[in-house]
Amino acid sequence: MKYTSLILLLACMLVLLGVRVALSETVTYVFLIWNVFLAFVPYYLSNFFVQALPKISFKTTLLFIAWLLFLPNSFYVITDFVHLKERVVIPIWYDAMLLFTATFTSLLLGLSSLINVEMYLQKIVTKQMSYIIIIGCLFLSGFGVYLGRFLRFNSWDVLQQPSVLVIEIYDRCVNPLQHLRTWSVAIVFTFFTACCWLIFKNFKHRSQPTVK
Fold it and tell me: What's this model's pTM, rounded to 2 decimal places?
């Protein structure tokens, strides 16, 4: 994803948000700025893998873990549509456009970061194994979206309250039938993001010039 495209998307979102704040005199949806920023973090981290040497090192391992911890933020914004409802002054179609712009930006950031990491993985493992790892990352990301939306955990809670996080995860792993919503969200997000990833890969491949 080129920075010019990112800047245009961010500018579009900020203009829509600025107009909304001015007309409604409220800060509703201003949180989208923070959410999109968090979605930018995994993309920023993934850029280090583009030029990384084809080997596993302590640095690349730490970067991969950090990238994986923040990856759910790229897809979490999709769930912000739960805030969409009729409000005074601002029509619902305008808010839908604002939310879509933020979601589209975050989704592209997440998919771009996946491509960067996938390119690195294919330097150190087979293509088939890289696909398995990516799908595994998407599943963990879907699980992370559940933790964020329904249990209100953040990526940095791994450091701030690890014991609470471990207990919640352990309970859902040991008693899966008692937490069907957890696994439903994780599976649906895995399916959706995997489809988006494959489509994005296809478009990206088609847009590359053919070498003769």
Answer: 0.91
